[in-house]
Design a protein that fits this description.
heterodimer, A: mainly alpha, extended
Chain lengths: ~200, ~100
């Protein structure tokens, strides 16, 4: 939030309005294919909002998980279920009550927070000055988030990468094992509803 | 100038979202989704220069790759009804269900 605060507030207002519009459209849409596309759009808008809020790493996670992987997984689900929703007539009282209570609790939780972007919030007083001084003194990457993730918490990040790598190997082995045991690819028959 | 560019990108984003919500056919929505992904890259770039710190410009590469994969998945699903469809094994070209 260095440059132009009013311009950034304007960008955030537009993005939040678009998010609200997309959310309402998702709730009202009955064609599931359209809902998948709209949720992908939602993820890209949310990633842009994260970038305006200077949380670039969260934005990249949101874009790759929300717009990339979940779109593909939801499409694979649509192949199994069909893409039209036939809603049943139900009472909306209980879902509305739960939504209002949870939303009110979240808004109530933000009341005690310090104002957005001020420099003397508690989170900026504890270890953050040490990180900033140290990364400047020892020629670490200019982006301090990168310096924290790759230098200060290097072992932690190495552990996370190891977990992700192991999970990827496990998923690949599971998929390959399924194909080999069946003797043929699952999409050989016309229905394609056996083991996938 | 960057304010103007950002406003133009936001306006294009608004139009693409309107098309995605209203769009009567599936292809309108697919095209609108792809456009929103591209506009997210442009917004990332213009926001970077608007705030005076364009260091995260290369994240746009990741967005571009993701956008490509997502659009391919959507189109392959729409054409074949199956993400693991192999064209060489099914030469007859069954219509999607």
């Amino acid at each position: 939030m260095i440059g132009n605060p009013s311009a950034e507030a304007f960008v955030m207002a537009v993005l939040l309005t678009l998010l609200a519009a997309v959310t309402l459209a998702i709730a009202r849409q009955r064609n599931m294919f359209g809902v998948v596309i709209l949720s992908s759009i939602y993820s890209f808008l949310m990633a842009s909002l994260m970038i305006v809020l200077d949380a670039v790493d969260v934005a990249m996670t949101e874009a790759s998980v929300g717009a990339g992987i979940s779109t593909v997984i939801l499409l694979a689900t649509l192949y199994l279920t069909g893409s039209m929703e036939y809603p049943q007539r139900r009472s909306v009282a209980i879902p509305l009550f739960v939504s209002i209570v949870v939303g009110a609790a979240l808004v109530w939780g933000t009341i005690g927070l310090p104002a957005f972007g001020i420099s003397d919030a508690p989170i900026h007083q504890h270890v953050a000055p040490t990180y900033i001084d140290f990364s400047r003194k020892h020629d670490m990457p200019p982006n301090i988030v990168t310096a924290v993730l790759a230098d200060f918490r290097g072992f932690d990040t190495l552990g996370e990468v190891t977990v992700v790598f192991t999970a990827g190997i496990g998923v690949l082995l599971l998929l390959q094992g399924g194909w080999r045991l069946g003797g043929s690819r699952p999409d050989d028959d016309t229905e394609g509803d056996d083991e996938i | 100038m960057f304010v103007l560019a950002t406003s133009a990108v936001l306006l294009a984003l608004l139009l693409a979202v309107i098309r995605a919500i209203r769009g009567p056919t599936v292809f309108d929505r697919v095209l609108a989704g792809n456009t929103v992904g591209t506009l997210a890259i442009l917004l990332l770039a213009s926001i970077g220069f608007l705030t005076g710190r364009p260091e995260f410009l290369d994240i746009g590469l990741t967005y571009g790759l993701l956008n490509l994969i997502g659009t391919f998945a959507v189109l392959k699903f729409f054409r074949h009804g199956d993400l693991a469809y192999d064209v060489d094994e099914n030469q007859e070209g069954k219509a999607w269900k």
